[in-house]
Specification:
By secondary structure, the protein is mainly beta. It folds into 2 domains: about 10-25 and about 55-185; about 190-285. The chain contains no helices and 17 strands. It has strands at about 1-15, 20-40, 45-65, 70-80, 95-105, 110-130, 135-155, 160-175, 190-200, 210-215, 220, 230, 235-245, 245-255, 260-265, 270-275, 280-285. The protein has a 13-stranded antiparallel sheet, with no helix packed on it. The chain has a two-stranded antiparallel sheet with strand order 11-12. Strands 15-16 form a two-stranded antiparallel sheet. Strand 3 and strand 4 (about 70-80) form a beta hairpin.
Length: about 290
């Protein structure tokens, strides 16, 4: 049994740089774990743990022209971990440092696109114990870096699209239990998604619409020892919907072609999770 409390202290303020189009945002946050108690009910023992950290967040946005924004962010994170280790005792808090730079642009006032590069380092990350899946184990240090591209907007009246691609390189950089350089589990190097929908804008069928999308997830490791891979998959979804004033109704079709695939694993070949089969879900909503 674990009891935990923590306190947040934050300060945030924008800085405008003269008459330029640059805006910097600075935020300081202190996270202090007041008390974390791990109690072994069987042996009637207790372990107390407390810690604090300074976690700054800094960002800057620059607009060379109104349609283009360049940005950069830096942050540090401090997150208390809950749970009890297999051998007893509390977990160390998770710590992280991240950098991100990117560019955002508007295309003809109909589409917006964002291209970003990020670099994230985390330590003391919890993952499923490879031998005892009901427990967790901490990895030493993980690093994820990659590129993300997203596009969204209304191409024509009623025709909307959202798409994204991500390349991710996620590895173990320090650890005593798992080989350094191994890929992180459940994280594909390549993933892609696209969803488009069209809603009739006039006439007797106004408000009626259809949508469809593709979701691709590449090969990824099934455990931190990299002993097996989860294969890639391509899932197709679709939807039919109707909107009229405050009334909303929709029928969503997930995994339209009933593809068999593994969605994730619990760091073990005996802890695999299948993706949902072909599923139909209907919703009706009235907005007040």
């Amino acid at each position: 049994m674990v009891k935990m409390g923590f306190r947040l202290l934050g300060l945030s303020y924008p800085i405008r740089m003269g008459k330029s189009r640059a805006i910097a945002t600075h935020q300081n946050r202190i996270v202090q774990t007041i008390n974390q108690t791990s109690r072994d009910l069987q042996n009637n023992t207790e372990e107390n743990f407390s810690s604090d950290a300074f976690s700054p967040r800094v960002g800057i946005v620059y607009q060379p022209i109104p349609a283009i924004s360049l940005y950069a962010n830096y942050s540090r994170a401090f997150i208390p971990n809950t749970g009890t280790a297999f051998g007893g005792g509390s977990f160390e808090p998770q710590r992280g440092t991240s950098y991100e730079v990117g560019i955002k642009g508007d295309i003809s006032n109909r589409l917006s696109a964002t291209l970003a590069y990020y670099d994230l380092t985390r330590s003391n990350v919890l993952t499923t114990h490879p031998v005892n899946p009901d427990f967790s184990i901490q990895t030493g240090e993980q690093r994820s870096k990659g590129v993300e591209l997203s596009i969204a907007g209304e191409i024509l009246p009623g025709w909307n699209i959202i798409a994204g691609y991500a390349y991710t390189d996620a590895t173990i950089t320090k650890d005593n239990d798992f080989p350094v350089g191994n890929l992180l589990s459940n994280i594909p190097k390549h993933s892609f998604n696209i969803w488009t929908s069209y809603e009739i804008q006039s006439g007797g069928l106004k408000g009626f619409g259809v949508g469809g999308g593709l979701f691709f997830v590449g090969d990824r490791q099934g455990d931190l020892n990299n002993t097996f891979e989860l294969p890639s998959y391509l899932r197709t979804d679709a939807a039919i919907f109707y909107k009229r004033d405050r009334f909303r109704a929709a029928i969503n079709f997930k995994n339209l072609f009933d593809v068999d695939y593994f969605e994730s694993s619990r760091n073990s070949s005996i802890g695999l999770f299948y993706g949902d089969p072909f599923t139909v879900q209907g919703t009706i909503r009235w907005e007040f």
